[in-house]
Design goal:
- The complex is a heterodimer of chains A (about 375) and B (about 280).
- Chain A is mostly helical.
- In chain A, about 70% of the residues lie in helices and about 0% in strands.
- Chain A starts with 12 loop residues before the first helix and ends in a 6-residue tail after the last helix.
- In chain B, α5 packs across α7.
- Chain B has a single domain, classed as Rossmann fold.
- By secondary structure, chain B is α/β, with parallel strands linked by helices.
- The longest helix of chain B is centred in the first third of the chain and has 16 residues.
- Classes of the chains: A mainly alpha (about 375), B alpha/beta (about 280).
- At the A-B interface, α10 and α11 of A face α3, α4 and α7 of B.
């Protein structure tokens, strides 16, 4: 006999009940013992360090890392042994370590941001963003003078460095992955080596080869050349990784349509890698934006607003911060914090833009 | 019967076997004693096949017997793989496509290819994909809108995408994407279309659509298709070549001839076993 029956549409009353079902998560139901033990395991270490912190002179960071973390691990293991048995203990340790490490990195970033925002906000005003330092001296109160000249300098230097390094970086990556020329391995090796060049050495190189020889002056362009040395390996290496991810199917597909290799790269491979290449550019910018040492040697600083990238020494946010933070005047230090805040904001704008352009799907006919 | 007469008869018989539809069909392409290497490993040996004009030839055989490698030598994609080498000749309209004065780009333009995995260009729209061959090869053809409609219709995709030609090609399902790349290959008007297991990633309905497309296209172009699907070979092809490679030996053609003959009355025992699904 066949066991074939229709059980859904014609089951009448049952169907009514089935329709009323609401979504549940039975695996989230815990026993009272479990709830109690986990709550205690989380609370007891917190209470102990609260007492330790309140009644001793031990600094907070040490209390957290040296006392709280090991204690939390022990209490998590005890809790795991009580409710889950032997197998649950390693899980508990891993979970505490993972959450601890995550919290630690979040706390570090957050406290840097917090410090910069608190200390920088004091200096922030419209004039701070629109004026230069031409008519003030470091002790001048905060209401006068600003960092517009340094902001412009950073934009100029990074912009020029980007314009030079992005095409060259992409071309390098194309040589390594698409042309696969005889020198590809050597090129990859040297690009990798270049990424190890200390930033101050990049500055020294530009200073001795280009500036002291009289070819160019200390200027935005000189600074951009130093930044270029630092940016190129990041752009080239990241682009290379991205191009490697483009499936070969696309290349053979284009070639099978009678495409030349150049057109395959320009019209199929690079557009397919667009998102990644934008990311490579942004990482390159992020790599250099705060670099101070090379600019001290190549661009120096200036109190005036300089528009000509080939002319005079020029201010930039990192050098502005560097020179002002070491001065014995509270207003100068305050301006340095303000500049740091603006620099951070600039970096986040760049990253947000990268996210936006990088993830949006563009398709052209 | 004189020797000359005998040879003539023999050639006529051979041609009759190869070009089932019309006994005196022109030979569009052929390979003569083609052997292929990857580095020092010989993967194909002495493959001679003639492909009559406007016919469908199926290449069948177990995995790893060199069918895909063979098909890629026919439009000079083989040489893109580092370490690739070959001996023998591949003739297109009687001329050796590996002659030094021949530009591989022009060969690939005349001998199009559809791959096993659908590979639409992700940065382009559906319309852009269809027309990409024109842009990439620099070929000038007027009335792009007509080309898009014609080729997509021929590939059996027009009705599904006509209202979203400007959408990204990435939106399409696997079966649609495969028909899109067929349309793309057709837009440059190749004389020969190589298809490397074009239906292996498709569902049955899409497969049937592609097979209808092949039947339609074969009226005006020569099609060479690699397939693992015996029923498909029977359904779409006029002639069939059976490839086989013994262990650690290069692949070779065991038997070739009209598809009906290969499947109903194979001369070689191994062919019989293979077409009946006893190995491979």
């Amino acid at each position: 006999m066949s066991q074939h029956t229709i059980t859904y549409e014609h089951s009448g009353v049952r169907l009514e009940e089935i329709k009323k079902q609401s979504p549940l998560r039975p695996w989230a139901n815990r026993t009272a013992k479990f709830k109690l033990v986990t709550a205690l395991a989380a609370l007891i270490p917190l209470l102990i360090i609260a007492v330790v912190y309140a009644f001793t002179e031990i600094p907070g960071a040490i209390v957290v890392v040296v006392i709280y973390l090991p204690m939390q691990i022990i209490s998590a293991v005890i809790a795991a042994l009580l409710v889950g048995g032997k197998n649950a203990a390693p899980d508990a340790v891993i979970i505490v370590l993972a959450i601890g490490a995550t919290m630690l990195s979040i706390i570090i970033v957050a406290s840097i941001l917090f410090t910069i925002i608190i200390k920088g906000f004091e200096a922030l005003s419209l004039s701070f963003l629109t004026q230069n330092n031409e008519y003030i001296s470091p002790p001048t109160p905060l209401g006068y003078g600003g960092i517009a000249h340094a902001l412009l300098g950073t934009v100029l230097i990074v912009g020029i460095a980007m314009v030079i390094s992005v095409p060259i970086g992409i071309a390098t990556a194309v040589y390594i992955t698409e042309v696969k020329g005889k020198g590809a391995n050597a090129v990859r090796f040297f690009v990798q080596a270049e990424s190890g060049v200390p930033s101050v050495v990049a500055g020294l190189f530009i200073l001795t080869v280009f500036i002291l020889s009289g070819a160019i002056t200390q200027s935005a362009f000189a600074g951009a050349l130093a930044y270029f040395i630092l940016m190129l390996p990041t752009v080239a290496r990241t682009s290379e990784e991205v191009l490697k991810l483009i499936p070969d199917d696309l290349r053979t597909g284009a070639l099978a349509l009678g495409s030349t290799r150049a057109k395959t790269v320009m019209r199929v491979v690079l557009p397919a890698a667009r998102t990644g290449i934008i990311t490579a550019t942004i990482l390159g910018i992020a790599r250099v934006m705060g670099e101070t040492a090379p600019l001290l040697l190549t661009a120096l600083t200036n109190d005036r607003t300089i528009w000509n990238p080939f002319g005079d020494p020029i201010a930039s946010l990192p050098t502005f911060i560097f020179f002002n933070v070491s001065l014995p005047f509270p207003s100068a230090v305050s301006r340095a914090w303000g500049a740091a805040l603006v620099l951070m904001a600039l970096v986040s704008i760049v990253f947000t833009a990268a996210r936006y352009f990088g993830t949006r799907k563009f398709a052209k006919s | 019967m004189s020797t000359a007469e005998f040879e003539e008869t023999a050639t006529a018989t051979l041609d009759a076997e190869l070009g089932q539809r019309s006994p005196d069909a022109k030979i569009e392409m052929e390979s003569r004693e083609l052997s292929v290497w990857f580095g020092s490993r010989k993967v194909l040996e002495g493959v001679s096949i003639k492909f009559p004009s406007n016919s469908v030839t199926a290449l069948i055989g177990p995995s790893g017997c060199g069918k895909s490698t063979y098909i890629r030598t026919l439009n000079r994609l083989h040489e893109l793989i580092p370490g690739a080498a070959l001996a023998g000749e591949v003739l297109y309209e009687g001329e050796d496509i590996y002659a030094p004065e021949i530009d591989p780009v022009s060969i690939r333009l005349k001998i199009g290819m559809v791959f096993q995995k659908p590979n639409p260009f992700p940065s382009m729209t559906i319309r852009g994909n269809v027309l990409s061959g024109l842009k990439l090869s620099g070929m000038k053809r007027p009335n792009h809108d007509d080309i898009v409609e014609e080729t997509l219709t021929a590939a059996g995709l027009w009705k599904e995408v006509k209202d979203r030609l400007d959408h990204a090609a990435g939106e399409l399902s696997g079966g649609q994407a495969q028909r899109l790349v067929i349309a793309r290959a057709l837009a440059v008007q190749p004389r020969v279309l190589l298809m490397d297991e074009p239906c292996s990633a498709l569902d049955p309905a899409s497969t049937l659509k592609v097979e209808d497309t092949i039947a339609e296209l074969s009226k005006s172009m020569t099609i060479i298709i690699v397939t693992h699907n015996m029923q498909q070979a029977v359904r779409v092809s006029d002639t069939t070549a059976f490839f086989l490679a013994a262990e650690n030996e290069p692949g070779h053609v065991v038997e070739q001839g009209p598809t009906t003959e290969i499947f109903s009355n194979p001369q070689d025992e191994r062919t019989l076993d293979y077409v009946n699904g006893r190995f491979g």
